[in-house]
Each structure stands twice: as structure tokens, then as C-alpha cells.
Amino acid sequence: xxKKAKKMSAALANVDREKFYGLEEAVSILKGMAADRxxxxxxxxxxxxxxxxxxxxxxxxxxxxxxxxxxxTVRVAVFARDDKAEEAKAAGADIVGAEDLLESIQKGNMxxxxxxxxxxxxxxxxxxxxxxxxxxxxxxxxxxxxxxDVKKAVESxxxxxxxxxxEKAGIVHNGLGKLSFSEDKLLENVRxxxxxxxxxxxxxxxxxxxxxxxxxxxxxxxxxxxxxSIKAA
Length: 233
Hints:
By secondary structure, the chain is of the alpha/beta class. The protein contains 9 helices and 10 strands. It has helices at residues 2-13, 23-33, 82-91, 99-106, 122-125, 129-132, 150-159, 183-199, 227-231; strands at residues 20-21, 42-49, 61-65, 76-79, 95-97, 114-117, 161-165, 171-178, 210-217, 223-225. Strands 1-10-9-2-8 form a 5-stranded mixed sheet. A 3-stranded parallel sheet has the order 5-4-6, sandwiched between helices. Strands 3-7 form a two-stranded antiparallel ribbon. It is globular, with a radius of gyration of 20 Å.
């Protein structure tokens, strides 16, 4: 514990908490901080928006595929029958079922990170709303997780698609890759993600949409980012 605190103190000593870093400089610094860690940390992004999600026209939620994936192994569960069930299995789904999957989840077995369903399965899946909903796992057509094209949905989830949503304070955060990625791949992921957030801007957004962006790693302090540097190619 003392060793972790010492490393964090050393990291803080090399960070100007008032400075707005260029994206490339920030990613380089964060990779450097992670060099002596014994595990592959995640690059995290937190975006403060002007949104108040309590208003229906200021809800921000969507999904985007990162060009270089997240580096995370994603376990996918699919509600489907017959040919669609076989299609899901062939695409790499970890768990596929119908009533049997429903019963398993009701018993507390939720060893998956993404849940997908064909449209005909939603009356069944709807019975799990109170279980899946609070965990952000309820299939949703707007997120592409209620679809007849289960092959594409499974491959997307496995390939690095990330879901984003603004929380109560209007903050959006996600992991955008592993620090073992090259700087170029991390930069591509960050720019692609921020672009997706901007394109999903709700109609009710008032004022400056993206107020602040902070990058950090699992074990580092946050670096405030000059937003203009993200837009630069």
C-alpha cells in the first residue's frame, strides 16, 4: 500500500494539475507513467458535458466502435432461437439461449458484459428488466443490441464497440484501450470516441457541449486535455 502511495506521489509531482495538455503529449506522459507497472492498465477518458440528463432532450446514449478495439475480452450473451442461435454461436457468442438463459440469469448467473437479443425474444427478455436494466445490460434497439443481425452485433461487441451514456452530472466516461497499445492507436481511439460523442449531441444541449476532457490510467492522476488538440489530425 505504501509503495502504491509513493508511486502516485511521484506521478503527481510530474503533473501540472492546472495545465491543459495537448492530446499527443498527454498520451505520451500516461504511457510513460505506466511503464513500470506490473499489469496492462487502461486509458480512461472522462468528459464533462453541459447536459442535464433529467431532461428528455438532453439524454446522451449510444454506441461506437473504436478503430483499434479496447483490448478487453468481452463476454457476450445472446437471446435467440433456432437459426439465429446458431448464427450467434458461429459469430463467437459466449452464451446463447432462450428460456434456459432467462432461468440462469434469474438465478444470478450473469457472467457476461453485453447482452443481445433478436426482436422476437424481447417479450421474454423484458421479464429481466429489473435485473439487466440497473447493470446497463438490457438489450436496446438504439444501441444495436436488439437486432435480427446477431452476427454483426456479436462481432461488433467482440471487436471493441463501447457503449456511452451521460450520467446524472452530465459526465461520460469509458476505457479506450490498453497502455500496451502504441501511441498512434490510442490517439486514434480517443479522436474516434470524442467524434462519436460530438455527433450524438442531443438537441437540448445548451452552451458549450464539451466542457472538459480528462485522460487518466488505472493508476495515474488525471490530465486535463486541450480539446482543440483532439480535433487536430
